[in-house]
Amino acid sequence: MITANGGGSNGSRVRLWKVELQKLADELKLPITVCHLPPGTSQWNKIEHRLFSFITINWRGTPLRSYRSIDQLIAATTTDAGLKVRAELDEKKYPKGVKVSDLQMAAINLIRHSFHGDWNYTISPHRKTHRSKAN
Q1: Higher local confidence (pLDDT), 96 or 59
Q2: Which of 94, 105, 103, 97 shows the shortest CA–CA distance to 13?
Q3: Where are the beta strands (DSSP E) in the chain?
Q4: Cα distances (angstroms) measured from residue 81 to each of 14, 51, 73, 104
Q5: Of 6, 22, 63, 72, which sees the most CB atoms within 10 A?
Q6: Residues near 67 by beta carbon (within 8 Å), at least 6 away in sequence
Q7: Which tens digit of pLDDT belongs to each residue from 84-108?
């Protein structure tokens, strides 16, 4: 299960987010349930509060001069309660302006939940069809 903010690159209305989740579900051969926080309510995300406040404390007064230094400061964040952060710099280049067609959207194996199906849904892997070889 993924809990996600209501907006941004993983927002509930982002088509590419759902296409990529379908690819992940197919690769893992597992259903992925997504529950988005209502729009404008990311401040309710307990993980963000628990994580980002300590990251901010950890890098206080340190010049953020490169992505590598930011990555290292985030990865060095811990708390007395046992929170440990794993961070890795992703230097891959991603294309901008990727368009998702209606056909691609229709191919997503998405089941909306009865409560706010626009924010809560499950994407299941596609079943592979095996054709028998003709003799």
Answers
A1: 96
A2: 105
A3: 2-4, 32-36, 110-112, 120-123
A4: 35, 12, 19, 44
A5: 22
A6: 89, 91
A7: 788 888 889 989 999 999 999 999 9
> What is the pTM for the complete model shown?
0.69
Q: For the sheet containing 120-123, what is the strand order?
A: 2-4, 32-36, 120-123, 110-112
Question: What pLDDT digit, counting tens, does each position of 24-56 carry?
Answer: 999 999 999 999 988 777 665 666 666 777 777
List of residues 6+ apart from 47 with CB closer than 8 A: 3
Phi and psi angles of residue 111, each rounded to the nearest 5 degrees, phi first: -115, 120
Q: Please state, in angstroms and rounded to a whole number, the distance separating the CA atoms of residues 126 and 108.
A: 8
Residue tagged 């980002």 (tokens): 52
Q: How far apart, in whole angstroms, are the C-alpha atoms of residue 35 and residue 112? A: 10
DSSP 29: T
3-state helix, strand, coil in the chain (%, to 5): 35, 15, 55
